[in-house]
Amino acid sequence: MRLQRVLAYRYKDRDGKEREHFKNFVNLPDEAIERLGWDKGQELEWEVQGDLLLLKPVKPMRAVRRVELAKKMARPCQEKLSLNKSESE
């Protein structure tokens, strides 16, 4: 694993001086991502403890997806219930 630095963009400051903005990246192994249960798009928060950088999910991605899936699955059931209710009236 290696820390990478990439030029993101160039701009001119208020004085007209050319500036550069860089982004830093670390590629994480697929095995680590899978073992942690993370997924692409996972929002992470970071914390520095001594000489360590800790990354942790803001919300577990899979839990968020389970809730979204449950809502999608509930919609057809709710529609059937409302149809049955209107038929019985």
The quaternary organization reads as: single chain
Determine the mean pLDDT. 82
Number of helices: 2
Helix content: 25-40%
| Parts with pLDDT < 50 across at least 5 consecutive residues | none
Topology as H/E string?
EEHEEH
State the main characteristics.
two-stranded antiparallel sheet, two-stranded antiparallel ribbon, 89 residues, alpha+beta, single chain, 4 strands
Q: Summed up, what is this model?
A:
The chain has 89 residues and is of the alpha+beta class. It has helices at residues 30-36, 61-88; strands at 3-12, 18-26, 44-49, 52-57.
Task: Outline the structure in words.
The chain has 89 residues and is of the alpha+beta class. The chain has helices spanning 30-36, 61-88; strands spanning 3-12, 18-26, 44-49, 52-57. It has one domain. It is built from two helices and four strands, in the order ββαββα. It has a two-stranded antiparallel sheet. The longest helix has 28 residues, at 61-88. The protein is extended and about 65 Å long. The model has no long low-confidence stretch (mean pLDDT 82).
List the helices and strands and how they pair.
Layout: E1 3-12, E2 18-26, H1 30-36, E3 44-49, E4 52-57, H2 61-88
Antiparallel strand pairs: 1-2, 3-4
